[in-house]
Specification:
The structure is a single chain. The protein is α+β, with helices and mostly antiparallel strands. The protein has four domains: 114 residues, Uridine Diphospho-n-acetylenolpyruvylglucosamine Reductase, domain 2 (2-Layer Sandwich); 119 residues, Uridine Diphospho-n-acetylenolpyruvylglucosamine Reductase, domain 3 (2-Layer Sandwich); 93 residues, 2-Layer Sandwich (Alpha-Beta Plaits); 90 residues, 2-Layer Sandwich (GMP Synthetase, Chain A, domain 3). The protein is 35% helix and 22% strand. It contains 18 helices and 18 strands. The strands form four sheets. A seven-stranded antiparallel beta sheet has the order 15-12-14-13-17-18-16, with helices on both faces. A five-stranded antiparallel beta sheet has the order 5-6-10-8-9. A four-stranded mixed beta sheet has the order 1-2-4-3, with helices on both faces. Helix 1 packs antiparallel against helix 4, helix 10 crosses helix 12 and helix 15 runs antiparallel to helix 16. The radius of gyration is 22 Å and the shape is globular. It starts with 28 loop residues before the first helix and ends in a 23-residue tail after the last helix. The site of flavin-adenine dinucleotide has 38 residues, from strand 3, helix 6 and strand 10.
């Protein structure tokens, strides 16, 4: 069984100390017995409850440093089949008990933190490939399958999904779908929402349902598959997915360029994409990240990698060369792209940074090309104005014909010691990037999702359409038990005060 690590050590004793959120109500022993009758594995051990109570939200590393868990479920259920998932969801719905799905727990927004206790639903028991259709280029895979296990099966069949999030080793298919994840090669292969063609989902109101997946396109009403993509465990529990795959790449090419300004680099990315070229990786770093990550001291580094059919790769890289040359970019050694490839799944040492007194996080946002330069400028400036900031930087990480993702990193020392000051610094820094992005018409998240951390921004971000989402939530989850407190939805268990 594959288990993913957590960002900072936290001993089982945390289960006997007050958690940051909660406590939730005790579970009726009769309900625990009924859960045990459904699932082979139902745990109430301190170890399992502490483990299920947290994810990779960097603020939880600050809490772990003083021995505090974010939250604690009363029980952790580990179903082995979609039917068992559906039965647990049904029982919790009829009993009014919160049920919070999790798998890799690599989410960075507190999405799987069980803020109202209840049941944490560990989906990693639902793993493995159901079937591969090499002619139609489709795979059906269970939701709790981790990235390396899926790619190993596909690779043996000469195929790849092409989904390579930095957290590839830590995360699962269901988590990717629930959060609208982006792999680092999304410019070539798309985000996870572009890859999915069908789902199996356990809902509270309608039981186990299947959406899409039977034909390449369909005009049989709205796309219900996409309703669940990005729903972060609030509308149903994804139990399996049918995804598009690709032949393993026959060729790969790399290049690198540097620019005098971030804006000039952005404009080259835009021009490459409008010509129809989609290099798998087109990442542009500001001066600070170019120096820190690549030892490039003369400007903003653009790293380019493409893979696929050799004819298409050559044509793509020719377009990149032409556009970079036209803009007067300096050609750099292609092994700068190799250096990026080697480190692309590096896991940041969050616990060490927290131990050194730093509060750190990244904020990924998306916007049209016309807004990116202003968001970059204003957000970095606002981050530097937050009292305590010691570093603020950005890179453009995923690019599309209509815009791109800007990925900000901040690090700061709270002006005063103690947890409240750290939380206050964190909130101000996150608010700074979010407010700037919204003021320029951008989206407040490109791929990390909303979870707990961003729930407060959803009314402003979605406007009246949050009301539509709320009505869908009530229809599918009438008791409101699925992952309460998340995605800015009404919370029948009471409002959670988030730092
Ligand atoms: C170092 C690091 C790098 C990262 N890099 C990337 C990146 O490059 N791209 C990217 O997109 N993300 C990245 N992330 C974020 C994270 O890996 C993704 O959000 C990932 O999709 C979460 O998958 P998971 O299996 O860990 O889900 P979890 O963290 O367990 O859950 C995340 C959310 O999904 C819900 N959920 C999980 N499984 C299901 C299911 N089967 N049905 C319904 N709801 C479910 C949970 O309730 C929760 O709300 C990174 C995280 C870390 C720590």
């Amino acid at each position: 069984m594959r288990r993913s690590p957590r960002p900072a050590p936290l001993d089982a004793g945390a289960a006997r100390r007050p958690a940051r959120f909660g406590p939730g109500p005790d579970l009726d022993p009769d309900l625990v017995a009924r859960l045990q009758a459904i699932c082979a594995s139902v745990s109430v051990t301190d170890d399992d409850r502490v483990d299920a109570g947290r994810d990779w939200w960097p603020l939880s590393a600050v809490w772990a440093h003083d021995g505090t868990a974010p939250a604690l479920p009363a029980a952790v259920c580990r179903p082995g089949s979609a039917g068992e998932v559906a039965e647990v969801v049904d029982l919790c719905s009829r009993s009014g008990v919160a049920v919070t799905p999790f798998a890799g727990a690599s989410g960075v927004c507190g999405g799987s933190v069980p803020v109202h206790g209840g049941v944490s639903l560990d989906l990693t028991g639902l793993d493995g490939v159901v079937g591969i259709d090499a002619d139609d280029l489709l795979v059906e895979v269970r939701a709790g399958t981790f990235g390396p296990d899926l790619e190993a099966r596909l690779g043996a069949a000469g195929l790849t999904l092409g989904h390579w999030p930095q957290s590839f080793d830590l995360s699962t298919v269901g988590g990717w779908l629930a959060c609208r994840s982006a792999g680092q090669y999304s410019t070539r292969y798309g985000k996870i929402e572009d890859m999915v063609v069908g789902l199996e989902v356990a809902t509270a109101a309608a039981g186990l349902v299947r959406t899409g997946g039977t034909a390449p396109r369909s005009a049989t009403g709205p796309d219900l598959t996409q309703l669940f993509v990005g729903s972060e465990g609030t509308l149903g529990v994804i139990t399996s997915a049918t995804l598009r795959v690709h032949p393993t790449a026959a060729a790969e090419r790399r290049s690198a360029f540097s620019f005098d300004s971030f804006d000039a680099g952005l404009d080259v990315c835009r021009r490459v994409l409008r010509r129809g070229a989609t290099p798998a990786v087109l990442r542009l770093y500001d001066r600070s990240e170019s120096a820190r990550n690549f030892d490039v001291g003369d400007g903003c580094l653009l790293v380019v990698v493409d893979e696929g059919d050799p004819v298409i790769v050559d044509a793509t890289m020719t377009v990149v060369d032409e556009e970079a040359g036209r803009a007067g970019a300096r050609r750099r050694h292609p092994e700068l792209a190799g250096a990026w490839l080697e480190r692309r799944n590096h896991i940041p040492p969050i616990a060490d940074l927290v131990a050194a007194g730093l509060v750190v996080d990244t904020v990924e946002v998306a916007a049209r090309w016309s807004a990116l330069a202003a968001i970059h400028r204003d957000a970095v400036e606002r981050l530097h104005r937050v009292d305590g900031t010691v570093a603020a930087s950005v890179h453009q990480s995923h690019a599309y014909p209509d815009g791109a993702c800007l990925y900000f990193t901040f690090a700061g020392r709270a002006p005063d010691p103690g947890r409240p000051a750290a939380e206050s610094y964190y909130r101000q820094a996150f608010d700074a990037v979010t407010e700037v992005t919204r003021s320029h018409g951008g989206s407040i998240s490109h791929h990390h999702g909303v979870g707990l951390n961003r729930a407060r921004y959803l009314p402003a971000a979605l406007g009246r359409s949050l009301d539509v989402l709320q009505r869908v939530k009530v229809a599918l989850d009438p008791a409101g038990v699925l992952n309460p407190g998340k995605l800015g939805l009404d919370d029948p268990f009471g409002t959670v005060s988030v730092p």
